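We give the entry.
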Amino acid sequence: MEKMLPEALLKLIKRVEENFPEDPKMVQLFVNCFTNTLDTTVKRLPDKTTYIITGDIPAMWLRDSVAQIRPYLMAAGEDGDIADMLVGLVKKQFFYVNLDPYANAFNQEANGNCWEHDETDMGPWIWERKYELDSLCYPIQLSYLVWKNTGRTDQFDETFVKGVRRILKVWRTEQHHEEESPYSFVRKGCYFTDTLSRNGKGALVKSGTGLIWSGFRPSDDACTYGYLIPSNMFASVVLGYLAEIAGEVLKDEELAAEAESFRQEVRNAIETLAVIKNEYYGRIYAYETDGYGQYLLMDDANVPSLLAMEYLGYEGDREVMENTRRFILSEGNPYYFKGKAAAGIGSPHVPPYYIWHIGLAIQGLTEASREEKLRLLQLMRDTDGGKGMMHEGFHVDDPSKYTREWFSWANAVFCELVLDYCQIRVKK
């Protein structure tokens, strides 16, 4: 399999081998995970766009597809075919955004396949129409990272410009969700986290706070309170990216100014409304709030998360960020679990006492200590359940009990942590 890989990817594998000379399992696990996404989930289409399934579900999520290919950004500057694949993914994503900016997952063709026949404005291209703020952040992030890592700018075409203007319109609308939003979502006969309350409108939020409403979390679970803070943090970061793209590449000073003003507005709202004084941890960021004073203190392993603040590029109050990290990596966080085999962050999306390889990888990617990065890598290596791949969640006492046999995002973020340990990182 390695011999069929592009030279740029083989060079990365060689660097991993050099950094783990006495750990053949770590190297093999990296090779398995690194090649799996490219071999099994990526499809180059005749129109030169790229379609990427999430793994064991035959659909493309805007979020997951970006996360799945991040490790290849580190080779894209040396390999034109990999760069073409990434540009093709940007173009496919913005094609979908222009079809429906409220949808989170799409079909390869307009075949009408879907997760469920939900009560919302479905179409034949849409696999699922859960509005998730982060789903619109990821295409902007990818377009920017492709530019920074390859120098390519052909992804910033008319479809991109039309798409980012639609995103800005949706985000402005969802700052006033109660009064202005056309979006609603109802799923019948399901667990309550798979649908929105109030006939599909979601829990009441205060409009005009500067925060952007999201119906669902990156786990695809419904928000308890509509202002999901990690996703607003991500939005503020990518608005900064958009301002830079508009100014330096598109030469559109009006769009650049609009994006920068919006970035500051969202960031100011986060720092004003999402910082909570906790008796044990001091000032910390809430996971969700409604703008009226209600809030939720927790974290979820799915990205964006509070744990991923620095990974995503959010620059908040340093003391608050450090306090928040202490909180979410403790049992004060209701989704932090400790057991015989591991300790880490899980998710209400899976059963209790299941922690996520994604969460462990993000913990490592946001650690300063190289020793701690290695400890987390070894923990991930030892909790693969004997399958030679990463999983979604695994039981803290028994890694052979896990959810999702095949989860490409988890494989990719493990690879990113391995490369990070080898001091190979995505350029931002």
Observations:
- The CA atoms of residues 357 and 370 lie 18 Å apart.
- The chain has 15 helices and 15 strands.
